[in-house]
UniProtKB/TrEMBL annotation:
Keywords: GTP-binding, Nucleotide-binding. It holds the Pfam family AIG1. This is AIG1-type G domain-containing protein. It comes from Phaseolus vulgaris. GO terms for molecular function: GTP binding. Residues 9-213 form the AIG1-type G domain. Transmembrane segments: none annotated.
Length: 304
């Protein structure tokens, strides 16, 4: 499988991506074997647009794309990185994350990884491998990359290495002996071939990017619809709950009003009865007084 996939491949394309100052362009120059990419030890990025150069490693044609630092502050960096896909005629076979052993892994570098996922989708991780520059410093101290990573390796970096299939390589950009440079390039090519084999020889192309984006969009739409339906059900349930609560409260208040009205009506009826009884009593008393008065008048007339 591996031999058939790799033997039919006329050329391979790799893209160097990373934070400014990690030695990304210098790594490209080391791979090519001459200073073809602008490189500086300063903190500001020299590479402003993506550019591609070609070399040969063990008879294999290798296209190397140098990209702007993801955090150079330019507005078009994202567009330039996306252009890598179109720049590579047959697609990109490996994305090389360039870190350095000369400084601690930072949140900015973690953001670089997350930015790549955001730009190209989660499948891009299957095309990634990691290069650590500063190999000359570790070699001078008699240490290996594994020694370096065993010393308080941040959790975020461990996750990235794991997602990249632990495809990693210590790189020396100050190497002077040509045979050692070629040996280092061969180690890199072996990792690239491993990445290609894992992806069945299929490079990361613009067409694949579009398909993944369409799939992600469809998934996002389905998720959005699911969320809308869930929110709609939640809204309807909440509306029912609120309606039932309001209805219950309304019935309670209406019940109180009904009782109050009944009490007022009973009090009014009782008052009317009392008034009617008083009025009848008054009429009877007036009638009695009238009769007594008439009797008194009749007695007075009889005496006269």
């Amino acid at each position: 499988m591996r031999r058939s996939v790799l033997s039919n491949m006329q050329q391979k394309t790799i893209a160097l991506v990373g934070r400014t100052g990690n030695g990304k362009s210098a790594t490209g120059n080391t791979i090519i074997g001459e200073r073809v990419f602008k490189s500086s030890a300063g903190a500001s990025g020299v590479t402003q647009v993506s550019c591609m150069r070609t070399t040969t490693i063990s008879g294999q044609v290798i296209n190397v794309i140098d990209t702007p630092g993801l955090f150079d502050g330019t507005n078009d960096v994202g567009k330039e990185i996306v252009k890598c896909i179109d720049m590579a005629k047959d697609g990109i076979h490996a994305i090389i994350l360039v870190f350095t052993t000369r400084s601690r892994f930072s949140e900015e570098e973690q953001a670089t990884f997350l930015t790549l996922q955001a730009l190209f989708g989660p499948k891009i991780v299957e095309y990634m491998l990691v290069i650590f520059t500063g190999g000359d410093d570790l070699e001078a101290d008699g240490k290996t990359l594994d020694d370096y990573l065993s010393l308080d390796c941040p959790q975020a970096l461990q996750v990235i290495l794991s997602l990249c299939g632990n495809r990693k390589l210590l790189f020396n950009n100050r190497i002077t002996e040509e045979n050692k440079r070629l040996e280092q390039n061969q180690q890199l090519l072996n990792l690239v071939d491993s990445t290609i084999e894992q992806n069945g020889g299929q490079p990361f192309t613009n067409e694949l990017f579009k398909r993944l984006k369409e799939r992600a969009t469809a998934t996002e739409k389905a998720e959005t619809l699911r969320i809308k339906r869930r929110l709609q059900r939640r809204y309807e349930n909440e509306l029912k709950r609120m309606t039932a609560m309001i209805q219950s409260k309304l019935e309670e208040e209406l019940g109180k009003l009904k009782i109050m009205f009944e009490e007022e009506r009973a009090a009014r009826v009782n008052a009317e009865k009392k008034y009617e009884s008083f009025q009848n009593s008054s009429k009877q008393e007036i009638q009695r007084l009238k009769m007594d008065l008439q009797k008194a008048n009749s007695s007075s007339c009889a005496i006269l």
